[in-house]
Specification:
Layout lengths: L10 H5 L8 E9 L7 E4 L13 E6 L4 E14 L9 E3 L7 H13 L4 H8 L2 H4 L5 E7 L10 H10 L4 E2 H8 L3 H9 L3 E7 L10 H5 L13 H15 L6 E6 L5 H14 L3 E5 L7 H8 L5 E4 L5 H12 L5 E4 L11 E7 L16 H12 L3 E5 L4 H9 L3 E6 L10 E6 L6 H4 L4 H12 L3 E6 L6 E5 L16 E3 L4 E3 L6 E2 L14 E5 H13 L5 E4 L7 H12 L5 E4 L12 E7 L12 H16 L7 E6 L5 H7 L3 H14 L7 E9 L4 H20 L4 E2 L3 E8 L2 E10 L5 H9 L10 E6 L6
Parallel strand pairs: 9-14, 9-15, 10-12, 10-13, 11-12, 13-14, 16-26, 17-24, 17-25, 23-24, 25-26
Antiparallel strand pairs: 1-2, 1-4, 3-4, 3-5, 6-7, 6-8, 18-22, 19-20, 20-21, 27-30, 27-31, 28-30, 29-30
Helix pairs in contact: 2-3, 2-13, 5-6, 9-10, 19-20
The structure holds adenosine-5'-diphosphate (ADP) and zinc ion (ZN).
The site of zinc ion has 8 residues, from loops.
C-alpha cells in the first residue's frame, strides 16, 4: 500500500490498540476483499483515527491464518473495548464522500444481488477512485509527555525541530536530518504521535465546458405545457414538497408527448428547493445529442459516464459531493453519485436493458434508483413510452408506484405514416436480398427527394458469418459458394443452401493470408451490399460496434449525417434512440421479427420497444415522414400492437403469458451460471448443485422452483462451456435468503472456473 505503514505481525501486538482511551475505542466496519457476504469489525489504531474514514482502503488481518488483506472502510463507530478485536494494520485514505447513505445503499445492493460487499463497493469505487488519492500525508506532533529515561542525541534533535508544531513526517525528518528509525523510537515511547490524513482535493470550478454556458434561455423554456405535462410536473413537484417524498412516478407517454420537458421542469423545481438531481440515461454512445440538449438547460451540471478518465471522474465526484453541482446526468453507475442533498432521481427510458450491470454486482440501475429514493425519501421519476413489464406490473401491484399517463403528443409533433412490409418469401431468401420491394421503393423515393433515410436492423437474432480480420475474405461453402453461417450453440458452420456442416476453421482460408477470423453479422453485411448494388450513388454511413470503437467515432459519424454528408444511415437499434434529424424522411426496420425467434422470454417486449421507438423517431417536425416495418414472415400480433402504439393491450397479453409460463415479473427469477473449460465439469456441477438446491427449496418455500440445469443459449463463451440453473419463486419467496443460506454451506460451492449469480436477470443468452 502506497504510504502503507504496517504494524509488525504478531498476535499479541494486535490485541493492544495503540493509544486510545481505556474502555472505548474506534471500530471500523470493513468490507474485506474476500468472498465473504458479511462485513467485519476492526479496531482503529489511534494514530489513524483521522485517516480511517468511510471510503478509506485499509489492510486487515483476515481469516484463520490472519493473512493481511485489503478492505474498504464502511463506517466508524465508537465502541466498548473488546480485547479480541483485531486492529487495522494499514490505511490509504479514500474519497471523503462515501456517505452513510451510500454505504447503506451499497450494502443493500450487496444483499439483494448476492454479491460480496467488497466486490459491490469496488464496482462503484473503482480502483482509480479508491487508490490514486491525490494527496495523503503523515503528520508528526510531540505529545508533550515527559521522557522516562534518557534520549539519544538524534531524538533530542528531532524533538527540538518539531517544537510544539505539527509537521509533515517527511519535512521533519529532512530538517532534523535523522532517520525514520529515530522517529519510530520516539513513537514507541509515546513522545511523538503520527497521523495520516488525506489532504482535501481542490474542487474544480468548471467541469463541463458546456456547463459554464448552460442555463441560457432556451426556446424550450417558453413552451406552454400541455395539460398532461402540466399535471405531471405538478404531481412530481407536490411530492417533492412532502417530508417523506418517496414515490415512484411512472411517466408513461407516447413518443413525442414531451416527457423530457416534464423532467426538466421537475428537476428545476428540485433545484429551486436547494436539492440535487440525478438523471440516469441508458448506456448509449449516441446519447450525446440528448445529453447536450439537456445539459444546456441547467447551470451547474456534470455528465458522468463510463468513459471518463479517472482524474476527471474523481474531480467530478468531488464537486458533486461538495454540493457544487445541481444536476448529474449519467449512465447506470451515476445512480451512486455522491449527492449530499439529493432531491429527485429521474430515469429516462427506464425499460432499457443497459441499466443492468453485466458483471457482479449484477445490479439494475433503475431498481437501485428506486431503493435510493426510498432510503433518502425522495421521488423517483421513471419515463418511458414502453415501460418495462416489471415496471408496469409494479404500477398495478404496489401502492408507492404512481402512473402518470401522457396520452397525447405535443402540438406540432406528427406521427409518420406507418407501413408494414414483407421481405418476400423466406424460401427464396438468398436471391431476393434483404430489402423487400416496399422498402426498396421508399429508399429510392427518399434519395430522389434529396432527403435522408435511417435503416435499422436488430443486431441480435441474425446469422453470423466468419470473415478474415486481415484480408476480409468471408468463409464460404466449398460446395456451393454461399456464406457459411456460424452457429455458436453448436460451434459449427452450416450452409443454409446445401446443408453442409463443417467445423469453423482457425484461420483465413487463404493460406497466403492466414489472418484471424472474426464474426460478423450477416444481415448488416447483406444490407450494405444490397444497398450499394441498388443505389450506387447513395452515400452510406454504417454505425455499429464493428465500425465504431470509441464514443468519438459515433459522434463524428452522427455529425456527418446531421450535416448531410451521408444519405443513408445504417445501424442497430441503438440508432433509433434519442436521435433527432430534421431531414430524415424515412425510417425503416429491416427484419423486425427476427428477434422474435430468439430463445429469450423478453423477445416480444424488445421487438415492441424497437418498433415504437422507430415510429416515434420518424414522426418529427418538418414535412411528412414514413416508417416502414419490414418483417420476414407474416407479422405477429406484437407488431400489430406496436404499430398502433397500443402498449396497454400488448402489456396485458404479454403479462398473461409471463404468468402462464412463470417468467418475470409474474415471478422473481435468479439465474445461476456455471462455466468451465473442462468438457463436463460445468454440467456435472450444475446438476449436483441443482439437485441439492431443489431438495432444500422444498423446505424453504412451497412455491420455490429450481429448474433443471441447461446449457446456455450461448453455450460457449471463449474457452468456457456454460450451464445455467434458473430459480423462480413468487414475490414473497425470499430467493436471496434461500441462496444466501445455501451459499454458507461450503460443500455446495460449485467447483467450476466461473460461478455467477444474477438476480433479476436481463441477459438471457
Ligand atoms: P418524448 O421524450 O416524450 O418522446 P420529447 O420530450 O422528445 O418527447 O418532446 C418531443 C418534442 O416536443 C421536442 O422537440 C420538444 O422540444 C417538444 N415539446 C415538448 N413539450 C412541448 C410543448 N409543451 N409544446 C411544444 N413543444 C414541446
Ligand atoms: Zn453450400
Amino acid at each position: 500500500m502506497g504510504n502503507g505503514r504496517q504494524m509488525p505481525r504478531g498476535r499479541q501486538l494486535w490485541l493492544v490498540p495503540t493509544g486510545g482511551q481505556a474502555g472505548r475505542h474506534l471500530v471500523a466496519d470493513v468490507a474485506v476483499r474476500a468472498p465473504t457476504r458479511h462485513t467485519q469489525a476492526f479496531a482503529v489504531p489511534d494514530e489513524w483515527r483521522d485517516a480511517v474514514r468511510p471510503g478509506a482502503t485499509v489492510r486487515v488481518p483476515y481469516g484463520r491464518g490472519q493473512r493481511i488483506v485489503e478492505g474498504l472502510c464502511l463506517r466508524v463507530t465508537e465502541q466498548a473495548w473488546d480485547s479480541t478485536r483485531l486492529p487495522i494494520v494499514g490505511v490509504q485514505p479514500g474519497p471523503p464522500w462515501l456517505s452513510e447513505q451510500l454505504v447503506e445503499l451499497a450494502l443493500w445492493v450487496s444483499d439483494y444481488y448476492l454479491c460480496p460487499p467488497w466486490k459491490t463497493l469496488a464496482a462503484f469505487l473503482p480502483a482509480g477512485l479508491r487508490k490514486a488519492r491525490p494527496r495523503v500525508a503523515t503528520y508528526v506532533r510531540a505529545t508533550g509527555a515527559a521522557p522516562s529515561g534518557s534520549l539519544t542525541a538524534r531524538q533530542v534533535l528531532l524533538l527540538t525541530t518539531l517544537g510544539d508544531q505539527e509537521m509533515r513526517r517527511a519535512d521533519v525528518l529532512a530538517r532534523a536530518g535523522v532517520s525514520a528509525a529515530t522517529l519510530r523510537g520516539l513513537c514507541r515511547r509515546g513522545l511523538v504521535e503520527c497521523r495520516t490524513r488525506a489532504e482535501p482535493a481542490p474542487v474544480p470550478s468548471a467541469l463541463l465546458p458546456a456547463a459554464a454556458t448552460g442555463g441560457a434561455a432556451s426556446p424550450e423554456d417558453a413552451y406552454e405545457l400541455t395539460p398532461g405535462q402540466e399535471a405531471a410536473v405538478r404531481q412530481v413537484c407536490a411530492a417533492g414538497e412532502q417530508r417523506d417524498a418517496f414515490r415512484v412516478f411512472v411517466l408513461f407517454g407516447v413518443p413525442g408527448s414531451g416527457k423530457t420537458e416534464v423532467y426538466v421542469r421537475a428537476m428545476r423545481d428540485a433545484i429551486r428547493r436547494g436539492r440535487q438531481v440525478v438523471l440516469l440515461i441508458p448506456e448509449i454512445a449516441l446519447a450525446t445529442q440528448i445529453v447536450d440538449r439537456l445539459a444546456r438547460r441547467f447551470q451547474r451540471v456534470v455528465v458522468l459516464h463510463s468513459q471518463l478518465p479517472p482524474r476527471v471522474r474523481r474531480a467530478t465526484l468531488a464537486a458533486i459531493a461538495a454540493g457544487a453541482v445541481d444536476v448529474v446526468i449519467g449512465t447506470r453507475s451515476a445512480v451512486f453519485a455522491p449527492c449530499p442533498k439529493l432531491g429527485l432521481i429521474v430515469v429516462d427510458e427506464e425499460q432499457e436493458g443497459s441499466f443492468k450491470n453485466l458483471a457482479a454486482p449484477y445490479y439494475h440501475a433503475r431498481d437501485v434508483a428506486i431503493k435510493r429514493g426510498q432510503l433518502e425519501r425522495v421521488p423517483v421519476l421513471l419515463g418511458s413510452a414502453t415501460p418495462a413489464l416489471e415496471t408496469w406490473y409494479n404500477v398495478q401491484h404496489r401502492s408507492h408506484f404512481q402512473l402518470i399517463h401522457l396520452p397525447e403528443r405535443v402540438p406540432g409533433a406528427s406521427l409518420p405514416t406507418v407501413q408494414l412490409a414483407q421481405r418476400g418469401s423466406p424460401d427464396v431468401e438468398p436471391a431476393c436480398g434483404v430489402l423487400g420491394p416496399e422498402l426498396r421503393a421508399a429508399v429510392a423515393e427518399t434519395l430522389d427527394a434529396g432527403q435522408q433515410a435511417i435503416l435499422l436492423y436488430n443486431r441480435r437474432g441474425y446469422a453470423v458469418f466468419l470473415r478474415c480480420t486481415r484480408c476480409g475474405l468471408i468463409v464460404r461453402c466449398e460446395r456451393c459458394g454461399a456464406h457459411l453461417v456460424y452457429h455458436r450453440v453448436e460451434h459449427v458452420l452450416k450452409c443454409h443452401r446445401c446443408a453442409v456442416r463443417t467445423p469453423p476453421p482457425a484461420h483465413c482460408l487463404d493460406s497466403t493470408c492466414d489472418g484471424r477470423l472474426g464474426q460478423m453479422g450477416l444481415a448488416i453485411q447483406r444490407l450494405e451490399e444490397d444497398l450499394r448494388a441498388l443505389f450506387p450513388q447513395a452515400r452510406l454511413l454504417r454505425l455499429d460496434s464493428d465500425t465504431m470503437r470509441r464514443r468519438e467515432d459515433y459522434q463524428t459519424a452522427l455529425g456527418r449525417f446531421e450535416s448531410g454528408e451521408a444519405d443513408i444511415l445504417l445501424g442497430t437499434q441503438m440508432v433509433a434512440k434519442g436521435l433527432d434529424f430534421p431531414r430524415v424522411r424515412l425510417a425503416g426496420v429491416v427484419e423486425a421479427d427476427a428477434a422474435l425467434s430468439l430463445p429469450d422470454f423478453r423477445a416480444a417486449e424488445k421487438v415492441f420497444q424497437l418498433i415504437v421507438q422507430v415510429v416515434g423517431r420518424a414522426g418529427r417536425r418538418e414535412g411528412p415522414s414514413l416508417a416502414i416495418v419490414q418483417t420476414r414472415e407474416r407479422p405477429p400480433a406484437v407488431i400489430a400492437h406496436a404499430l398502433r402504439l397500443d402498449y396497454e393491450t400488448f402489456a396485458a397479453q404479454e403479462l398473461e403469458l409471463r404468468r402462464r409460463f412463470s417468467f418475470s415479473p409474474a415471478v422473481r427469477m435468479v439465474r445461476l451460471l456455471l462455466a468451465d473449460r473442462r468438457p463436463y465439469r460445468a454440467r456435472d456441477e450444475a446438476e449436483r448443485l441443482a439437485a441439492v438446491l431443489r431438495e432444500r427449496a422444498g423446505r424453504a418455500h412451497a412455491r420455490l422452483r429450481v429448474d433443471s440445469p441447461e446449457p446456455c443459449v450461448i453455450r460457449r463463451r471463449g474457452e468456457l462451456l456454460r450451464y445455467q440453473i434458473l430459480i423462480r419463486g413468487p414475490q414473497g419467496a425470499r430467493i436471496q435468503e434461500f441462496l444466501d443460506s445455501a451459499g454458507r454451506d461450503k460443500e455446495l460451492a460449485p467447483r467450476v472456473q466461473r460461478f455467477t449469480i444474477d438476480v433479476d436477470p436481463v441477459d438471457w443468452l
